[in-house]
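ok so for the tutorial part 2 we go from a plain amino acid sequence to predicted structure tokens. step 1 is just haveing the sequence, like this:
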Amino acid sequence: MSSTYSTNLKIELQATGENAGTWGTITNTNLGTAIEQAIVGRADITFSGTTEPLTLTNTNAAQDARALYLNLGGSPGGAATLEVPAVQKNYIVKNGTGETVTIKVSGQTGVAIPDGKTVIVYNNGTDVVTAVDYIPSLSLGAALPVASGGTGITSLGTGVATALGNNVDSAGAFVVFDGALGTPLSGNLDNCTADGTNEVGFRNVPQSGSAKTTSYTLVTSDVGKFIEVGASGAIDIPDATFSAGDFVTIFNNTAGNITITCNISNAYIAGTDTNQSSVDLATRGICDVLFISGTVCVISGNVS
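step 2 — the prediction. this is what the tokens look like for a chain of 304 residues:
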């Protein structure tokens, strides 16, 4: 009866009573070549095309497909494939080809290895898969870069971690440092101090330029501001200029009425349904112009 070979590593299995006088040599080759190559061996694989096949045959001599560490080099000329035999085997693979290389069993999916990267994979006898997909704990020697899913920072800074841990409500809503605003459901400002440097928006209505003493056409930079009209001044509301929600206040700072000309397609005095071509703003009167669209506005205040 002649020798046979193991399924995965092709270790020579000698039959009882076989190889008289050479049994020790074959055993030493099994241990010192085949098994040692599978445990610690390295094979340099040089690509000359986009597909490089590795095979295992019935011999205990050194074979690249048996090595633990596969060092890929050469010039594939494009995305490449390293085909390995359909046997159970773990590999450490370093890709130095300048291209992405997929290690797989022929006809299967395998694992893609970017250029310059080293991976640990496992051939389960059907295909090559990622060998590690869970790490219970991990300590890195350097910050994980953003490109790899990290933050790129080495620490959170003083007090940041503590602040993030304070006063999170049951719904995981917005967190504030030391819970100074209470829970997000109450949101009171009892503990807040305004020092003049932290205002949000306007705390007054700004004036749009100086008093208008000639005919003045409203412009979009007037939105959210008030227009003062002085002696000989007048206001023109243009068409197709403003957007829905824009708002302008006009103040007549004269001793008589002033005219607001409505060149916009549709202008209404609030509470009426008559399209106005012009309105009068009373002396020392104030009116607000609310734009419903670029062609419709509503005027409220001391107007007629």
